[in-house]
Amino acid sequence: MPGTKQRHNNSLGRQVTTFCALFGRVKLFGLQPALCPTLVWPVARFPAAPTDREFRHEMKYVIWTLIALLAVAHQDFWFWNDATLVFGFMPITLLYHAGISLAAGMLWFLAVRFCWPTNVDMVGDSEVSEERPT
Amino acid sequence: MNEAMTPLVIIIGYLLLLLGVGGAANRLFRGTSADYMLASHSIGPFLLLMSLFGTTMTAFALIGSTGESYAAGAGVYGRLASSSGIVHSLCFFVIGIKLWSFGKRYGYRTQIEFFRDRLESEAIGLLLFPILVGLIIPYLLTGLMGAGGVLNAMTRGAFESYGWFADYGYGVPGWLGKLVISTVVLLYVFFGGMRGTAWANALQTIVFMVMGIVTFYVIATELGGKESFLDNLRTASAAVPEDKLIRGEKMPQLQFLTYMLVPLSVGMFPHLFQHWLTARSANTFKLAVVAHPIFIMIVWVPCVLIGVWATSELAAIPPTLDANKVLPFMVNKLAGGVLGGFLAAGILAAIMSSLDSQFLCIGTMFTRDIVEHYGGRERFTDKQTVVIARSFVVAIAAVTFLLSLLEPRSVFVLGVWCFSGFSSLFPLVFAALYWKRLTKLGAYASIVVAAVVWWVLFRDSGYGKDREYAFLNMMPVATIFACSTVTLVVVSLITPRPSEQTLARFFAVKRSA
User: Fold this and answer.
1) If you measure CA to CA, which chain A residue comes closest to B381?
2) What's the pLDDT tens digit per position in B305-355?
């Protein structure tokens, strides 16, 4: 694609563009989070946002990296022997891991949105002929 | 009516409702085997989410999590639940969608049908079939054992005025509870097939999630005894011994790390494979992928807190009480008869929503992978196929019930060993979908090595008797998984690759935009 190399000659710029474009595009219940404009501004400083196809390709790496980081964060050795009760009733290790579950839900939301395979829904009902006459 | 009889009446009402659901699903039954086994690929996002979640959450999630957090503390959630939130959805995303695609394209109804084609091997079925069935039966046992325990604990005293079942505290004996539960599940699977199973799972998932939250509220209120709910929570947690609030020495870091391999079992569960194939389209999976970790949190956090609270003096749990009976004991002691009955129904719902899929799945496997495959598919009409599948469902239910009377090991421990076996087969399904170089000899070797190493370690643990068993300071699944993966890769690399024709069927050439 013409101009692609030129736009992505700066790897930092590419990463920032991808992250900003991500937050710029995510909508929650049809509304863009108020945070988005502040996150999208670096797009103007770096080369233009990649096309949709390029964007999705790059997002795959970002999201899989985030999922790997979540698996690392899950190890939680920092609260191993911490008996603090947050709000007076919630063991801190339990609260932390409930947060991991919420983060997983959010990450899978992004994965579904940006990494969804494009070639799996090609099979139509007419192609399936497994039933035999009774 | 005797007050202790109230929970029993509510439980009976709930079981009748489930039979009604099975009957309603039967009215939509199209009479074909595809409809009986896969609901004619008609399940939408909500039902798929509820089916998948209900199927993965069994006695293991409610009874096991409470019992294990009673024994090991709050760290149990991180050890299994939050990792499952990451890994289960990963399996749905990476494995489930692709298998759904191949299943719909080539008409697969069981995993073995897929592996036979992908590996160009007849023998893979003979090797894999006994292993899959052998692993799923203990998983079924965890459900039935949990159900028997719950029914007994919740109905104690119900028959005192009649003088019946004195040896079982005048409650429903464990064996009778197991018999009733397996019969109810059997009936709605028998008549409703996969559609009945999916509907019943949706209902049961809603029931056990709602009742789980109500249980949590009631137990917290009763334990705390204060005016505000927050004060009750604080009072209950403040009484917990400090060692139950941390992981500490009882949960070594290497074991915690390697526990993350256990939820990979979801990628190889035959009953989940069958549920995946019921999806109407690939997009149907999206809701399940996103909501699954959050649903896990909703179910597990309250159960773990209840288990932790049970260690305090406020709960006054008898020291001899089996960990599997902690939740029923707390519910029975702290909730009234009516609420106790509904809560028991919620616990049974979680158990039955897994049992049904497993019964149906084993019936389907026997029918498709053995009878039809070796007897000749053309020998049977579609109606006969449905009759055969139903007969196998009945036989499996009977065998499982008889085995459950032996009362083997704790629910949690048995579940972990069973999951470890499925996890060790994960490299096989992953490679079959993503690695062209996988060969049938590599697959054979990997399965044999996984089975042998699993058996050696299981025996070494005293057949599950040693609850804290670790090998090289890791969960046994890590060793089995590593051996299986290395064998698969090495043997595949030194043996002839599959034909280009087969590879072309499973690895589409990337199309340009």
Assistant:
1) A134
2) 999 999 998 888 888 887 877 887 888 788 777 777 887 888 888 888 888
Q: State which residue of chain A sits closest to B100, comparing Cα positions.
A: A120
- Comparing CB atoms, the residue among A94, A100, A122 nearest residue B74 is A94
Question: Closest chain B residue to A94 measured between Cα atoms?
Answer: B74
d(CA B246, CA B106): 50
B445 inside domain: no
- Whether A132 and B283 lie within 8 Å, measured CB to CB: no
Domain boundaries, position B259: 3-406
Query: pLDDT at position B413, please?
Result: 67
Task: Say if the Cβ atoms of B290 and A83 lie within 8 Å.
Answer: no
CB contact under 8 A, A93 and B74: yes
Indicate the pLDDT class of residue A18, thresholds 50, 70 and 90.
low
Tell me what pLDDT residue B407 has.
65
Query: How does pLDDT run across A65-92, given as a tens digit for each residue?
Result: 999 999 999 998 888 889 999 999 999 9
CB contact under 8 A, B253 and A129: no
Partner B, chain A 89-108, Cβ-Cβ below 8 Å: 89-91, 93-94, 96-98, 100-102, 104-105, 108
Could you tell me if residue B170 is inside a domain? yes
State the pLDDT confidence band at A56, using cuts at 50, 70 and 90.
confident
Could you give the number of structural domains in chain B? 1
**A75 interaction partners in chain B (CB closer than 8 Å):** 253, 256-257
| Residue contact A132–B382, C-beta within 8 A | yes
Inter-residue contact B380 to B388 (CB < 8 Å): yes
ipTM metric = 0.88
Separation between Cα atoms, residue B24 and residue B408, nearest integer Å: 36
Question: Which residues are registered as beta bridge partners of B279?
Answer: B43
Instruction: Report how far residue B409's alpha carbon sits from residue B469's, in angstroms, rounded to the nearest whole number.
Output: 14
Contact A39, A19 (CB under 8 A): yes
Flag if B257 and A129 touch (Cβ within 8 Å): no
Local structure of B121: helix, strand or coil: coil
B243 in a structural domain: yes
Q: What CATH number is associated with residue B182?
A: 1.20.1730.10
DSSP-derived pairing of the beta strands A85-86 and A90-91 = antiparallel
Which residue would you say has higher pLDDT here, B473 or B437? Answer: B437
Please tell me the total number of residues recorded for chain B in this structure: 513
Q: Are B344 and B154 in contact (CB under 8 A)?
A: yes
**In the structure, what pLDDT confidence band is assigned to residue B489 with cuts at 50, 70 and 90?**
very high
pLDDT of residue B416: 76
Task: Choose the closest CB to A80 out of B100, B246, B283.
Answer: B246
Residue in A80, A108, A132 nearest the CB of B247: A80
For B454, half-sphere exposure in the C-beta direction (CA atoms, 13 angstrom radius) is 22
Mean pLDDT, chain B, as a whole number? 87
Q: Per-residue pLDDT tens for B141-179?
A: 878 888 888 888 888 888 888 888 988 888 899 899 999
Q: How many CB pairs under 8 A join A and B?
A: 157
Closest residue in B to A72 (Cα–Cα): B257
Residue A116: list chain B partners with CB under 8 A. Answer: 286
Give the nearest partner residue to B107 out of A96, A125, A128, using CB atoms.
A128
Q: C-alpha dihedral over B448, B454, B459, B462, to 10 degrees?
A: -170
Beta-bridge partner residues of B435: none
Domain contains B437: no
CB contact under 8 A, A111 and B34: no
Instruction: Tell which residue, A91, A79, A69, A128, has the closest CA to residue B281.
Output: A128
